[in-house]
Amino acid sequence: MITAAQRTAQQNRDTLFLEDGKVLSADAFPGEQFVMRIRAPMCAAAAKPGHFVHISCDESRPMRRPMSIMRAQDDWIEILYKIVGDGLRLLSQKRPGDLISVLGPIGMPFALSPERPNALLIGGGVGIPPMVFVADYLREQRGDWKPLAILGSEIPFPFDAMTSKLEAPWLDAHINRSMPLLEDWGVPSRLATLAGFAGCFDGYVTDLADRWLVTLPAEELAKTEVYACGPTPMLKAVAALAARYELPCQVSLEEFMACAVGGCAGCAVRIETPDGPAMKRVCVDGPVFDATTVVWDS
User: Fold this and answer.
1) What is the H or E stretch that residue 39 is in?
2) From residue 231, how far is each of 17, 126, 237 by CA, in Å?
3) Helix pair 205-213, 232-244: axis angle to 10 deg
4) How far apart are CA 108 and CA 262, in angstroms?
5) Average pLDDT for residues 53-62, to the nearest whole number?
6) What is the mean pLDDT of residues 171-186?
7) Which domains does the chain have, with CATH numbers?
8) pTM metric for this prediction
9) Does the pLDDT of residue 10 top 60, yes or no?
10) Least-confidence region, from 19-28, 120-129, 239-248, 257-266
11) CB-based burial label for 290 (10 Å; 0-12, 13-18, 19+)
């Protein structure tokens, strides 16, 4: 009899790669945040929005760290991280030309629905990268995709926020700060914070998302789906918001991981399944789950 773990292993066969990644660039931002571009051609070729990589920070630290993929183009991937502990501090000291071990892409990605082209992308803190990846993927697809990104942070954003030239008639004109990369792609974005940053919405990402959703007529809501990544309290609030508008919602969960390939089950969370509640591993059964199946208070 084939176990669930064996089925997952078979499913991921020939899609998971271990390679020596070469650091191409490493840009620092306030709040000890970094965007690193790594040459990892096998991982880049197979990566989809929602996937992550497990990387080695330094030879002196045997434990790898899971990092969401923010972009995957040509032969490189980009990650965004904030220093938490000695391992990521050592990673922040890497310079172009240095090699780091990259294992990926890992996990179940977002399932993008063309019949719901109004993609509401909600990212908080280090949950921003998967939303950028979704936006990048959608802009390259044919179809009627109309993504809107709502990004939140309580520390300075890991990019130089700019005044948007893309209209948002559902907002007051002074709420106009956006992510330059998304702006260049023609993807409207707005920023939310409780830290009082100029031009940003004063409140939670869910409050800002509500401002947009309440303006949509029924026929547009029927074309809308929510995608989110961020801290668990934020995701719980996003799930509740989506439920209130009766919208499908996919969330990418953040959990501590050891092996990241399903062996240790240290990242397991409680999920409702057709057969009843079950513990699912965020690394390989996720990190993306249907928000209605997550047991938020477990």
Assistant:
1) strand 33-39
2) 28, 8, 10
3) 20
4) 12
5) 93
6) 96
7) 12-106 (2.40.30.10), 118-249 (3.40.50.80)
8) 0.94
9) no
10) 257-266
11) middle
